[in-house]
Design goal:
Length: 98
């Protein structure tokens, strides 16, 4: 059984990016940006691996990508240009370390 302490399963929309080229379909689109985590109970505790996962969805091909947490945090604060074509990474499946 898998438990994630502090991570929310609720997904929140964070807005749309500027036009970027989708690595999967090659079209210029505005990706929808979403995140799954909003608050932290104890950010300085290193025993817990709590992080916000930002993911982007292509409206044309439904390709799903992710960006670094720092880039996503900047985007959430209103910096639309913080996410560019070279920031898109393949979203990896969560695997518990236990």
């Amino acid at each position: 059984m898998e438990y994630r302490l502090g991570n929310s399963i609720r997904v929140k929309s964070r807005g749309d990016t500027v036009e970027l080229v989708c690595p999967e379909c090659g079209k210029k689109v505005q990706f929808g940006v979403f995140s799954n985590f909003e608050r932290r109970l104890a950010p300085k505790i290193t025993l817990l691996d709590c992080q916000t996962v930002y993911f982007l969805v292509c409206p044309e091909c439904a390709g799903v990508f992710t960006v670094d947490e720092a880039k996503g945090d900047s985007f959430k604060q209103g910096e639309k240009l913080s996410i560019g074509n070279f920031d898109l990474k393949t979203l990896k499946e969560f695997k518990s370390k236990i």
